[in-house]
Amino acid sequence: MSRTEETRRVATKDYDIARMTEHDLLAVVELEETCGLSRWGWEAYYHEIVEGRGALMLVARSTSLCNEERAKGVLGFIAARFSADEVHINNVAVRHDFRRCGIGGALLDRVLREASLCGVRTAILEVRASNTAAQALYRQHGFVNVGLRRGYYAEPREDALVMKAVI
Predict the structure, then answer these.
(1) Mind listing the pLDDT tens digit for each residue in 91-119?
(2) Is 126 a catalytic residue?
(3) 71-84 mean pLDDT
(4) Residue 98 burial (CB < 10 Å; 0-12/13-18/19+)?
(5) Within 10 Å of residue 120's Cβ, how many Cβ atoms?
(6) 161 Cα distance to chain centroid
(7) What spatial distance separates the first Cα and last Cα of the chain, rounded to whole Å?
């Protein structure tokens, strides 16, 4: 199957969203490194999965791949943390070939839905000032700009917009 055909299949919801497991971590870290995120690395994700109280770590996995390829089939992920009545969205990433297929929005929807069920009232995140695609996604989910963190990102050095949503 070509990449275009595979992307078309994903666009028709050929993926599942599930809790991240340690079996997903190599694919998650690889994705993190290719997406320009502030790097957490394997150990930080592992800690959040195993010991992270209040952490919600989800992956979108392809359902069209055979079992041996499914671990590599992580199409996207989201890392969030609950604190009192707020959820902080730490990282969201989708494989480049699968962007604009609704995966990022589905991951964000799931976190916001679970947050609401837990009584959380607000969501907050930081996003690169240059990442207009992500900002548009967040605005579609009710986020608005509430601040600026100068020099927040290190590689490359860049400001972050602080965005907040009422859930």
Answers:
(1) 999 999 899 899 999 999 999 999 999 99
(2) yes
(3) 87
(4) buried
(5) 19
(6) 17
(7) 40
Q: What is the DSSP letter of 130?
A: T
Coil, strand, or helix at residue 133? helix
Catalytic residue chosen out of the listed positions 15, 32, 48, 138: 138
- Helices 103-117 and 132-140 cross at an angle (nearest 10°) of 40
More confident call, 38 vs 128? 128
Structure tokens at 131: 């990442």
Nearest of 123, 143, 132 to residue 56 by alpha carbon? 123
Q: What is the torsional sign of CA 77, 145, 86, 119?
A: negative
Catalytic residue at 86?
A: no
Given this model, what pLDDT does residue 65 score? 59
Residue 165 has pLDDT above 80, yes or no: yes
Contacts of 70 (CB under 8 A, 6+ apart): 61, 62
Instruction: Determine the Cα–Cα distance for residues 42 and 26; give it in Å rounded to an integer.
Output: 7
Residue whose entry in the numeric block shows the structure tokens 């207009």: 132
Burial class of 131 by CB neighbour count within 10 A (0 to 12, 13 to 18, 19+): middle
Q: Residue 72's pLDDT is what?
A: 58
Annotated catalytic residue within 15, 32, 126, 153? 126
Tokens of 53: 């109280």
